[in-house]
Amino acid sequence: MRFDILTAVPELLDSPLSHSIMQRAKDRGLLEVFVHNIRDYSHYKHKQIDDYQYGGGAGMVMMIEPILNCINVLRKERDYDEIIFLTPDGDLYDQKTANTLSLKKNVILLCGHYKGIDERIREHIITKEISIGSYVLSGGELAAAVLVDSIGRLIPGVLNDETSALSDSFQDDLLSAPVYTRPAKYGDWEVPAVLLSGHEAKIEAWRYEKALEKTLERRPDLLRKKEFDNDLST
Ligand code: 6GU
After folding, report:
1. Structural domains in the chain plus CATH codes
2. What is the mean pLDDT of residues 101-129?
3. Atom of ligand 1 at shortest distance to CA of 143?
4. HEC states along the chain?
5. pTM of structure
């Protein structure tokens, strides 16, 4: 899978996608990430990329031309399945969207900045608008990194144990059960006995119960969604 990320601040994306699982995915040739500086595609004086908004008001707006120049250079080389704009007023991102996007081949991520981008880019070029949560970031770069990470790890072969993505929180609309490692006893902090029992069925049942408990306590909305999804499939 290939991501092309368009940004006015490419430095923000240097590190988050170059370690751990993301770096391994790149090394294995399963994930490619290219970061493009929108400024390099500006033909205006001083490589200008934004301007005052029509109608007045505070905040600069990113202009059509540098963004479109960059996208057109990329589109000449390959077809893109999605051109996504990261914006706080986009559709709320979730695991289901990550799963869907992990099946795509070429995706452009456009990071907004300042007051926003010229609406005509959104109208005519963008295929999907995504927000990663109900709060405001200074720009779309951190959100783009969140997308690449959450989607990249779903590509077959990226995770070492193929099943581990399946037992992630949210993958089955349940939060994860607690986990423990050595030592079995740390002062008077003890690992639940069932996990030391070697009884696989009991361990599985315990984990499911704990996952249900935690979900009920912290995210009852996920259980209602799960019930609803089950009703639809029966
Ligand atoms: Cl995608 N961008 C910005 N600037 N803020 C956000 C966001 C995106 N998602 C949540 N807040």
Report:
1. 2-152 (3.40.1280.10), 169-233 (1.10.1270.20)
2. 95
3. 1
4. CEEEEEECCHHHHCCCCCCHHHHHHHHCCCCEEEEEEHHHHCCCHHHCCEEECCCCCCCEEECHHHHHHHHHHHHHHCCCCEEEEEEEEEEECCHHHHHHHCCCCEEEEEECCCCEECHHHHHHCCCEEEECCCCCCCCCHHHHHHHHHHHHCCCCCCCCCHHHHCCCCCCCCCCCCCCCCCCCEECCEECCHHHHCCCHHHHHHHHHHHHHHHHHHHCHHHHHHHHHHHHHHC
5. 0.93
